[in-house]
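Provenance and format

Records in this collection were gathered into a single text stream. Each protein contributes a sequence line and a token line. The two records reproduced below are adjacent in the stream.
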Amino acid sequence: MKNKLIWICGFLTVAILSVSGKDKSQIVYPSASISAKMKKDAFAVCRNLEQEFELIDYGKAIERVHLVLTILEDNGNDLGKLVLPYDK
């Protein structure tokens, strides 16, 4: 009886999580939503920037960067390269 209950709970959990997942084909940051003011004379538009810095130990840290950049023209291609300098 316990095994059946565990299997049913596991199945329901997987079913709920699979239904609630995001559609991968959905565009999260559509370029059509950028206002004309922001597009004027711009090579690229920064849509979202999140930085997280976690100090692990003395001399050890983790930096996470999530950047959403919409490149509007070929001149902005260099802006699509993320460079994070570091030093020992």
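Adjacent record:
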Amino acid sequence: MAVHRIIEANAATLGDIPAIAAGGITISYRELNQRANAVARHLLAQGFRRGTVATVCLPCDAETIVVLLGILKAGGTYVLLNPETTRPEWPRGVSFAEEAEGDEVRYRMVDVAPALMGAPQSSANLPIVARSTDVACVIADTNGEPLMFVAHATIVSLKRDEAPRYTEWSGQSGALDLWAALMSGATVTLNAPALQSAA
């Protein structure tokens, strides 16, 4: 079982229950799922493929959660870096390595803003299969060096029937708490300054 499949099931059953809340703005489970589907389709259109590792260097906010879920839905893995503490040479935004000749590695930057801001063209979930053994996220240090590779199965094992109604998310250190909360149907609160909800 993949993390995003459980969240998709929650979107179907919980609908308008808040998935993310902060500063008086909420994103429901349905909206979270639809917007993440749009991000996944946008990534695939940009050459993203199942098994691709995306580097996400974005602030801790609701849009970042949508992007992370979109990466999982596209069959990928993410590395979340804090733009305030990460080395300045790391590109800000979302990027992934492209195949190149020889030892050369090229990174493609993907502007996810169009997918985040536009109304989803289709709310249907993507058929991409992710195995429970696939890596969902890589926890890295401030230099971007990997510390831990976390499989879908590991995160799914954190799902609790009796979860707190609200869980605060503050970034990478709470990456597993984020997914445990969303899989359990809780509302994730943020300590980030700005949130934007889709129109």
